[in-house]
Design goal:
This protein has no helices and 11 strands. The chain is mostly beta strands and 115 residues long. The relative contact order is 0.32.
Length: 115
Amino acid sequence: QVQLVESGGGLVQAGGSLRLSCAGSGINFSIYAMGWYRQAPGKQRELVAVITNGGSTNYEDSVKGRFTISRDNPKNTVYLQMNSLKPEDTAVYYCNAYRGGREYWGKGTLVTVSS
């Protein structure tokens, strides 16, 4: 059974930082591309950052220079370091694993940034 479990969300003031973690189990974690998505109230889910199985990264424009995605394959974990947080970063953040048309999702962790 595949599980992706996010943690690290919470309430933070604007300008603050949070680090999200996503622990995977039941999959060969190292061969999957891992992504962080977010969904704000009333909006569609959007891709925030992705890291390939080779370690290449890509970011949504609004988070470039503020967020950093990384992975630790021996720990089956992907991270999202979020700095200089803004109220518009408020959303539920979801972890995603993707490979060859097969994908898995976590249940999400809520990030709330107060102004």
